[in-house]
Write a structure and sequence with these properties.
Purple Acid Phosphatase, chain A, domain 2, globular
């Protein structure tokens, strides 16, 4: 079985279209998303519609919560809040309803857990080994022994708790979890990568082999940039697409 997990699409229809073409060749059995379908970029409706029609579900991101009116975005900086609210004004009633109904966590095949920020808080960033170790220690064993897929940072990679209890950061590539190991796995971002690689990022997961593989997909960055500028969104969001920051 192959499961694709995408995160932080952020209204980038050009990046999503490139990833969808890649998925058509891979033909995964399930596709899930980790939220932040909207915000930052210029095509929120298309990205939400894709999730509604082409995925087995997902979880809510903090930008999704603002766009559908479930959150006021009190922790957002001004430009991000402007873009999230713009997304909310430029999606249909059906799309807004889909965002409003997304849960904050979901258990799927292989005993895997889907969250946006961290298992404990959809707005919590997990950047460090110490943060990851704390999150892994607090996991409920009843939710399964598979990896926890999380997003929010837009940085592809993983944190793995080995059998001896030590936790280490793992760079994106291929990861096979051995018996007794648990991991926090970040697919990276489809629509706004921040690891200085502008290519869209996502993961494939094989529950039987407990194997995670990261994939990068080039897309028409310039087309996405111009859509941001033409929509009157903050230019900073167009510029960071070019250099992956």
């Amino acid at each position: 079985m192959k499961i694709a997990v995408l995160s932080d699409i952020h209204s980038n229809g050009d990046a999503l279209a490139a990833v969808v073409r890649e998925l058509e060749g891979i033909r995964p059995d399930r596709v899930y998303h980790l939220g932040d379908l909207v915000g930052y970029n210029a095509e929120p409706e298309g990205c939400v519609r894709w999730a509604m029609g082409s995925t087995a579900g997902g979880v809510s991101g903090n930008h999704d919560a603002v766009a559908c009116g479930r959150s006021a975005g009190v922790h957002f900086h001004r430009a991000a809040l402007h873009a999230a609210l713009w997304s909310g004004r430029n999606i249909s009633v059906e799309a807004r309803g889909y965002l409003a109904a997304l849960p904050e966590r979901r258990t799927v095949e292989g005993g895997s857990l889907l969250v946006h920020g961290s298992p404990g808080d959809p707005e919590q960033y997990v950047y460090t080994v110490a943060q990851a170790a704390g999150e892994l220690a607090r996991l409920d064993p009843g939710e399964g022994e598979g990896p926890v897929f999380f997003g929010h940072t837009h940085l592809a990679g993983a944190f793995v708790r080995r059998e001896d209890g030590t936790v280490e950061a793992v760079r994106p590539g291929t990861l096979i979890l051995r018996k007794g190991e648990r991991a926090l796995v970040n697919p990276g971002s489809v629509g706004q990568p921040r690891d200085r690689n502008p290519e869209a990022s996502f993961v494939l997961f094989d529950p039987e082999q407990r194997k995670v593989s990261w994939l990068r997909v080039p897309y028409d960055v310039e087309a996405a940039r111009w859509k941001v500028l033409d929509a009157g969104l903050p230019p900073v969001f167009a510029e960071r697409l070019r250099d992956g920051t």
